[in-house]
Amino acid sequence: MFRTVLVANRGEIARRIIRACRALGVRAVAVYSEADRDAPHVRDADEAVLIGPAPARQSYLAIDAILDAARRVGAEAIHPGYGFLAENWRFAEACARAGLVFVGPAPETIRAMGDKTEARRRMRAAGLPVLPGSEGPVGDLAEAERLAAALGYPVLLKAVAGGGGIGMARVASPAELGPALATARRRAEAAFGDGAVYLERYVPEARHVEVQVFGDGRGEVVHLYERECSVQRRHQKLVEESPAPALDPPTRTALTAAAVRGARAIAYTNAGTMEFLLAPDGRFYFLEMNTRLQVEHPVTEEVTGTDLVVAQLRVASGEPLPWRQEEIVPRGAAIECRVYAEDPARGFLPSPGTITRLVLPTGEGIRVESGVVEGSVVTVHYDPLLAKIIARGPDRAAAIARMEAALAGTVIDGVRTTVPFLQRVVAHPAFRAGAVHTQMVEQGAFDG
Amino acid sequence: MAEEIKAHITGVVFEIVARPGDAVQAGDPVVVLESMKMEIPVEAPRAGRVAAILVEAGQTVQEGDVLALLE
């Protein structure tokens, strides 16, 4: 095992990784920007290094500054968390060149899965179902028109270098295609430095179901069952749970087997997530692979009794997978609600500010992963995730009941948060029936 | 009389969509702000011509700051 690990992130996930280091007796070193001098993750760590000013490009995304910090503190490995540099193959490669272990998959895997059309090709070659779509990036408008007509409207435009829904657009008719193509390209170029886009068939009322996989890089891959994440706004998840309520046992078996087959085909190392679209007819299609730890990993940990971050560090340090497939047995149900500094009443607009009062829930079956404390300043520079509330129970109804109580006991003053919205979601008959799809938030189903 | 188009949130200018002299319709995005990793368009409140863009990409703006002038 490593003696020192550098945690190249901030907020709740940095604290989560530091905790995993503690559990293994590993020294954890935090990095921070000037805006995060007083942040909880800095206080939690054994040591902390200032890496630059507030804007992420000059701090949490500054590869040289982070590698410098790692060298200075004698770290042997870097855990990237999620977001920031977690899916940047150049960073993973730079770590290797600097003699540091990147806690995650190989740079080549990150690069291949980061190109969403390449990921589709590889997974189709491995026998996974993918949605009908363009082979690669679409060329000019005439080609896009031909492809879209063949797929049938509406179609989805997606960024090849994408993720997080940036540059994604639903196109309902041929007349909308030209302007949508131009906008999607401009957005993708601005966000990823690559304006390439591709087309995919649009499936209405689809659900988002994903499978947690874990590989040792030598071809051994296990899965840790699925999560459903259909409550989303702007293609970003708000509520996640495991098991997925919509999945019948044969579909669950087929889905997890497909995920393992896909991850084996690319000799996947460390933790990853295979994302699928589940259509109303019960068919599923590979969407993309996230080559990192997922925000919603706690729901999987709660139902499988595992520690995914500890496992990540173990596998990265050269140990074998901590579990055989048959040892991973899901029990009960777990739900996660993401508490963001956003105003649900104003279309989930960001709500920066200072947290003047913070009361987080506790109790039987309740777990909280928080990145803030009273007095924390929530700035415009970073993702507005404040905390994740996870409720576990012997079954889904029990987990929901605990979540309701937990949300009711949560007090956050100083910024607007998604808490009131989350309360409406978990109380909603459609959610209780396990019958939500990815467009419901934007259709206003949970508006107060 | 030019009308001020103001930022409705605090953020960083992500993209300038309209150029001075452009004709815009009500609801057309003029500037896109980025805040907390989100892109938030600032739209023209009415039809008109963009008289001036007062910010640059990458600049931090506060809620209420004037971003552009519409005439």
Structure explained in plain terms:
The complex is a heterodimer of chains A (448) and B (71). Chain A has 448 residues and is an alpha+beta fold. Chain A has three domains: 4-103, Rossmann fold; 132-201, ATP-grasp fold, A domain (Dna Ligase, domain 1), CATH 3.30.1490; 207-432, ATP-grasp fold, B domain (D-amino Acid Aminotransferase, Chain A, domain 1, 2-Layer Sandwich). Chain A is 33% helix and 26% strand. Chain A contains 14 helices and 22 strands. Chain A has helices spanning 11-23, 40-44, 63-73, 89-97, 107-114, 116-125, 141-151, 174-192, 249-265, 297-304, 308-316, 396-408, 419-427, 429-432, and strands at residues 4-7, 27-33, 47-52, 77-79, 101-102, 155-159, 169-171, 197-201, 207-216, 221-233, 236-242, 269-278, 284-290, 333-340, 342-343, 349-350, 353-354, 357-359, 366-370, 377-378, 385-393, 411-413. In chain A, the strands form six sheets. In chain A, strands 13-12-9-10-11-14-21-19 form an eight-stranded antiparallel β-sheet, with helices on both faces. In chain A, β1 (4-7), α1 (11-23) and β2 form a beta-alpha-beta unit. In chain A, α4 runs antiparallel to α5 (107-114), α7 packs across α8 and α12 (396-408) packs antiparallel against α13 (419-427). The longest helix of chain A has 19 residues, at 174-192. The model of chain A has no long low-confidence stretch (mean pLDDT 96). Chain B is mainly beta. Chain B has a single domain (3-70), classed as OB fold (Dihydrolipoamide Acetyltransferase, E2P) (Beta Barrel). Chain B is 0% helix and 54% strand. In chain B, strands 1-8-6-3 form a four-stranded antiparallel β-sheet, with no helix packed on it. The mean pLDDT of chain B is 92. Classes of the chains: A alpha+beta (448), B mainly beta (71). The interface between A and B is medium-sized, with 19 and 14 residues.
